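Batch job 17 of 40 flagged for manual review because the log was empty.
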Amino acid sequence: MSTAFSFQTQLVSIMDALSKTAVMEISKLVEIESKMLKIEITRGRNEIASLTEKLQLMEKRAIRCGKQKHRTRQNK
């Protein structure tokens, strides 16, 4: 009976070590992936800000061109 108990104790010890190792590895993967996602989110936000700025500039230019065309037509 002591052999079965010894085997069970060793098995529990091995399973405990394996589960702790698995948790550590999974935690590392989650940390790495979350860092990558944060980088992608930041990159996306920067791109949105840049595109918004360009759009506003183009809208201002379009308004100016529209006003100039309107003035040109009035002067004719």
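Reviewer: the log was empty due to a logging misconfiguration, but the result itself is present. The mean pLDDT is 92. Unflagging and moving on to job 18.
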